[in-house]
Amino acid sequence: MKKLTTMVMAGVMASGPALADLVIPDLSYRTGAYAAGGIPFSDGYQDYFNMLNQRDGGVGGEMFRIIECETAYNTERGVECYEATKGEGALVYQPLSTGITYQLIPRATADGIPLHTMGYGRTSAANGEIFSNVFNYPANYWDGASVIINALLDENDGSLEGQKIVLLYHNSAYGREPIRTLEVLSEQHGFELVQLAVDHPGQEQGNQWLTIRRERPDYVIMWGWGVMNQVAVQEAANIRFPMENFIGNWWAGAEHDVIPAGDAANGYRALNMNGLGDMPVFADIQTHVHDAGLAAGDGSNLGSVLYTRGMYAAMLAAEAIRVAQEMHGVAAITPAMMRDGMEALEMTAARMEELGAPGIGPEFSVSCSDHGGTGMAAMQQWNASEQEWVTLTDFIAPDDAVTQPLIEEDSAMFAAENGIEARDCAM
Amino acid sequence: MPDQLIFAMEVVANGLMTGVMYALVALGFVLIYKASGIFNYAQGVMALFAAMTLVGIQEGRVPFAHLINATFGTEIHHLPWHSVPALLAIALTVLVMIGLAWFVQKVVFHHLVGQEPIILFMATIGLAYFLEGVADLMWGSEIRTLDIGLPQGINTIIDETTFNWFGYGFFIDNLDIVAAIVAAVLVAGLVAFAQYTKQGRAMRAVADDHQAALSVGISLNFVWILVWSLAGFVALVAGTMWGAKSGVQFSLSLIALKALPVLMLGGFTSIPGAIVGGLIIGVGEALFEFIVSSNDIFGAVFGFTLNATENWFAYVLALIFLVFRPQGLFGEKIIERV
Question: ipTM score here?
């Protein structure tokens, strides 16, 4: 009876007028081919906002209202979700797909709603002078490519001269993102870059791995997603490629990417833009959300790589809201105020510790011209026997001298194509 | 022997193995199309559903656990036993697929007898979405590891033998070898069933002329349930082999895309056609990719190379065959009388 009453009350509340003012749409994908990645991210994203609601009464006295919309990682459905939810007073969108991001950049900019494309989307959106409403902190794909090469330089006494590196990439706009950066770095550091594309969805990679077996590269870097990751890890194990020399980007380094290959995946490495480990904030989520029966999912993903990333994304959004409230002196902020808050965001080690998430990300600050953060990322390695990712390094910086000119060039091209006049951030 | 030739031989060997995997998917389409004239769009999803059910049963999971827990506030995930022996799990999954065949026939196609083929095709599209949703509700969206003892990794005997012959060891995946053996047994079994059993002969009779079969007392209902059950069993085999490679996950349903060029090439009505078509597509796309991605072959002539050609080349190859033989290599000849 108690359950029934609770359900009826929940139904009444859901159908009644909005009780909260900080509206956060969650463009999740819990169904379809990419659900395994979408579920933990969405769980982490929602659980953090719910935890703030339960523990602190929201932020600045305003409660969060989360509107979940299922995209199934489909661009058309993602745009439909945006159109269906923007009128609710949405403060910020996390599109969670490079395809959806490309569609939303002009729409969200016209509507004055900020986008946070955290470690995905259009890399050159880091240039805030051109992309006023798009933010991709703390890191972007070009940073990621540069961080991997910097890590390999460290391991090879500062030289990759004469080495052969294969880039195994998803044959899509997302997968092709790191190519230019790696080409520039290949010329700069004297390594040979071999590019191998894998067609969507990536279930069949036999030919690519035969090529890798013949080419005998020193390293394989992977820009994969979905089933491509699991198959690649299994194929690498099949040809006995040294797993520690196989490195994925941050979308190819979650638990579900390696578990299907079993022990053979041991030693596989991947980048991560967020830290891992037992953080105090997880205990708060457990107490205030999971134990209270308010978890967005079944509670099994708490602390996993993508859950932590989703939670980190929510944390950055909540912090930007707090900054916006302070800047404008109002608790019920508008999307335009949210944009201002995101542009003035500063994440320090002390603040992350205060939030119960020490080391969850690198220290960074956002500005009018820099919407991309420091671009730092850490290297992690899969321990198959313990079934866990182990962080190997501190956050490593990318080579800005390489990535910055590329960002400026690409964003200038976007501005010319779309008739956008660069903002004067010096003012 | 030149290196490129040795590499090409390895590519051909692997292409043959991949072709067998494609043929496994195509077989399910052929069985249903041959017996009922229905192009079953849901065959890929059936492979997904079968593989998910196999893993779910093997891990002792409670079907629809998320739904039950969300509705009643319970915390049920596993049955009292946490694992079921692989063979028993396979047998139970076969029973589930037979149940599904009965459901599909009774609920969907029983009501569509005599409808145009396009209507039946549309019904299978609906069935695909329905099954995908049911699979999600039953077992969840997480990626599951399929462990029924199938070997994986390089076959060392072939590696060492070819190394002794050519100075370069060929890579052949043990899983692909198992898949080839399973496919051979499956095809032999299907052919024997069709030739030597009463039910098989009834199935062939319906395939040839269902009105004539009906007039001699063959139950169309029974035969169609039988055919959908066999297609379900083939889907289980295909889902198991592909699921062992990538883990059991929702993208498994996309393996159907690989079966289409195989069917176009081999014909929709021939079991040997599915096998030969699969082998031609497997070898053709692998060899084409090898040639056009090679700096020493294609690159040396044209100054550039191509990559990731497998998906589109399979269709191009099938279309080339279609120009000369619209019914496919082994399809029944289309005779139009005016």
Answer: 0.89
